[in-house]
Amino acid sequence: MAHRWFAVHTFTGQENKVAILIERMSEAQGIRESFSDFLIPTEDEVTSVSGRKRVIKRKLFPGYIFVRMDLNDSSQRLVQNTAGVTGFMGAGGDPAPLSSEEEQSLLRIRAKPEEVTTSGWSENEVVRIISGPFAEFTGRIDEVNLSRETVRVMINIFGRDTPVELKFTEVEREE
User: Fold this and answer.
1) What is the dihedral of CA 140, 146, 150, 155, to 10 degrees?
2) Which residues of 156-165 are buried (b: 16+ CB within 10 A; e: fewer)?
3) Which of 62, 93, 133, 165 has a CA-to-CA distance to 77 between 20 and 30 Å?
4) 47 and 54 in contact (C-beta within 8 Å)?
């Protein structure tokens, strides 16, 4: 049995459910040995809600799960007939295993998930400052610093754009 990693396309938001269903159905059908691992890569995203810092898990590849499996007729049929699965990644409907480079990248993400951190903020996004001396000012994000959890916001003071460095928790999206 040669177990390889395959990308399985699912309905967005049902990745965890699909992985659990495949695992349960494989046990029920007596082919659990055909599946050795499931991976749904996530990252920590730092956001601010009502002035409070929140860390949420965000899927790196929404709508996909990675399954390490021995591809045979019964395992392929099981995956394709699982509720929430739209199919395997591959040309012409044939499942294609991940390349060795893709596998290494996937395993690196699994080994060091703390290195994959993003912010809910992006450059050129319009935000409103909710605390500090510039409260109620509106500005545009010029730079995001993940390591310090700060953003540099350009606000207009006396007709000139002025950079102000703020914590993630001091700004919120402008509605």
Assistant:
1) -10
2) eeeeeeeebe
3) 62
4) yes
Residues in the chain: 175
Q: What is the CATH number of the domain that holds 140?
A: 2.30.30.30
Which one-letter DSSP state was computed for residue 100? H
Neighbour-count burial for 87-97, b at 16+ CB within 10 Å, e otherwise:
ebeeeeeebeb
Q: What is the pLDDT of residues 14-37, one digit of tens each?
A: 999 999 999 999 999 999 999 999
The number of folded domains in the chain is 2
Q: How far, in Å, CA of 99 to CA of 79, rounded?
A: 20
Q: What residues make up the domain containing 167?
A: 121-173
d(CA 86, CA 13): 13
